């Protein structure tokens, strides 16, 4: 995967409240926990000294409980909320130095947001809602309608072009919101808990839609959610937030397999490990006589898939990467992962995630 960052964030703070600016630079105040800071200064530090990169083509998930700072953090990326301190760059360009017109261009063309409450215009048809972003970009009517129709087909709304939002289900309205953001062909799509108001079946359908869009187009996405299952399903990497800080940033497998602290461990306790962990972290080195024996699995196969292969064959599985046997997994190792007694490979021994 290309590792050029789209967004690069360093030492970002957002403090709400009186004289918020003094907080990030004052070691005495930054050492306080959120409740103490509030009682001493009347300020809330919604984002505290956060640094990360969003890589080109990845789905970067910001996850955390309500109030942990997810929305504030993502709104700071395009300065819908003004950061208090720190740096933000998009493709190397300083976002905090942008003037109004540059910012408008950033939000309209480069980083489009899909909101939880759709934000659709009630008196406009689906087609005109989707074309709206193109209209404010100054695109002519015929051209924008053509482009909108194309995107409507892409998100599965064909035939509904002339309805108004009130005549659509929640899931369909969310697809219109998604289509409207996609129509401007942004470099990054920012999703603010887009599916949390949808019922579980529709929600799953929308998650599949995002996965499909990402697979087909490779567009960079930043996705906010408070739902761990959703984060694990969609994220290439997940930033887990608590009280304004990122407590762990890693792949779903790293977060589930090597929690950074007790908070994260508790957070992921009920996750079925065999559905997240891959055989790459569970495998052992093959011995000389093992090449050629047993069923073959890919390094990125889940432990659950490997269990099935091993059970069917009644023999350890070979982990095969580009035609070469790079490891073996047997039932003991696989059970160890399920039980949580098998330690994942230490950092640095992992191989890069394959493109799928
Ligand atoms: N305009 C504001 N003024 C003061 N405090 C604010 C403001 N906006 C957010 N906060 C506080 O900042 C903290 C982080 O809020 P934020 O909305 O970013 O969290 P969140 O993780 O997105 O929560 P949720 O999942 O409930 O949307 C909370 O304590 C919140 O009360």
From TrEMBL:
Family as reported in the entry's similarity comment: Belongs to the ABC transporter superfamily.
NCBIfam families from the UniProt entry: proV
Gene3D superfamilies xrefs: P-loop containing nucleotide triphosphate hydrolases
Superkingdom of this protein's organism: Bacteria
Keyword flag ATP-binding: yes
Ranges of residues in domain ABC transporter: 32-268
InterPro entries: AAA+_ATPase, ABC_osmolyte_uptake_ATP-bind, ABC_transporter-like_ATP-bd, ABC_transporter-like_CS, Gly-betaine_transp_ATP-bd, P-loop_NTPase
Protein's UniProt keywords contain ATP-binding: yes
Molecular functions per Gene Ontology: ATP binding
Keyword set, alphabetical order: ATP-binding, Nucleotide-binding, Transport
PANTHER family the UniProt entry points to: GLYCINE BETAINE/PROLINE BETAINE TRANSPORT SYSTEM ATP-BINDING PROTEIN PROV, GLYCINE BETAINE_PROLINE BETAINE TRANSPORT SYSTEM ATP-BINDING PROTEIN PROV
Alphabetical list of Pfam families matching this protein: ABC_tran
Protein name in the entry: Glycine betaine/L-proline ABC transporter ATP-binding protein
